[in-house]
Amino acid sequence: MRMVERQIEARGVRDARVLEVMRAVPRHRFVPPERAAQAYRDHPLPIGHGQTISQPYIVATMTELLQPKRDDRVLEIGTGSGYQAAVLSGLVAEVYSIEIVEPLARRAEAVLKELRYDNVTVRAGDGYAGWPEHAPFDAIIVTAAPERVPQALLDQLKPGGRMVIPVGPVHALQELRLIEKTATGELRNRRIAPVRFVPMTGDEGG
Ligand code: SAH
């Protein structure tokens, strides 16, 4: 598929499993019908409720940084369209995804079900608290930007686990970070790139 060659491989994403899955997931099914013709373009698209589906290259980069393994259980904060969850679905054992805008959660859940991404579980709710019932996770991907890394998410990451998260103020560029928790529980932070995500809303204190 041209999207994968020109936007993703050309910019240095190399993980063969990620490239394969991104060739297979029908992105046009995750955007509003009137946007279907633009689904494979090199930018984010509106999905309603003031939210967006991320640019394909960003989805690929974040997925590669997560180093998804077949047996992994992954938590996503910000289901949005469900596209990122569908990409992860083909790479790991289980995906748990939380979306704060209820109608978006319901729509993503329906599309994922229809397309038989059966290992994805969507919940409407506030991702700041993570999903304690299914924790700990091998990997956590956050697709909305909080000002600080939520402590509950750090707590729900397994030793050896990876978190990919954009962090920073609402009206500025944020910093995409890869946080790795070592086998002994220490946190290693890597700054990856400046990015622009919708803000993480909800209750930072909760
Ligand atoms: N991963 C999505 C991109 C979604 S944009 C996709 O593939 O389409 C980010 C999403 O995060 C938005 O839908 C927004 O409503 C949601 N969001 C913002 N704050 C949140 C929070 N506290 N908990 C859960 N979801 C949140």
Q: What are its keywords?
A:
two-stranded antiparallel ribbon, 9 strands, Rossmann fold, binds S-adenosyl-L-homocysteine, alpha/beta, 25% helix, 206 residues
Please specify the SSE layout and strand pairing.
Elements: H1 2-9, H2 16-24, E1 45-48, E2 51-53, H3 56-65, E3 73-77, H4 83-89, E4 94-99, H5 102-114, E5 120-124, E6 137-142, H6 151-155, E7 157-167, E8 174-181, E9 187-195
This protein binds S-adenosyl-L-homocysteine.
In brief, what are we looking at here?
The chain is α/β, with parallel strands linked by helices and 206 residues long. The chain is built from 6 helices and 9 strands, in the order ααββαβαβαββαβββ. It has a single domain, classed as Vaccinia Virus protein VP39 (Rossmann fold), CATH 3.40.50.150.
Describe this structure in words.
The chain has 206 residues and is of the alpha/beta class. The chain has a single domain, classed as Vaccinia Virus protein VP39 (Rossmann fold, 3-Layer(aba) Sandwich), CATH 3.40.50. It is built from 6 helices and 9 strands, in the order ααββαβαβαββαβββ. It has helices spanning 2-9, 16-24, 56-65, 83-89, 102-114, 151-155; strands at 45-48, 51-53, 73-77, 94-99, 120-124, 137-142, 157-167, 174-181, 187-195. The strands form 2 sheets. Strands 5-4-3-6-7-8-9 form a 7-stranded mixed sheet. The chain is globular, with a radius of gyration of 16 Å. The model has no long low-confidence stretch (mean pLDDT 97). The chain binds S-adenosyl-L-homocysteine. Residues 51-54, 77-78, 80-81, 83-84, 98-101, 104, 126-128, 143-144, 198, 200-202 line the site of S-adenosyl-L-homocysteine. S-adenosyl-L-homocysteine binds next to strand 2, helix 4 and strand 4.
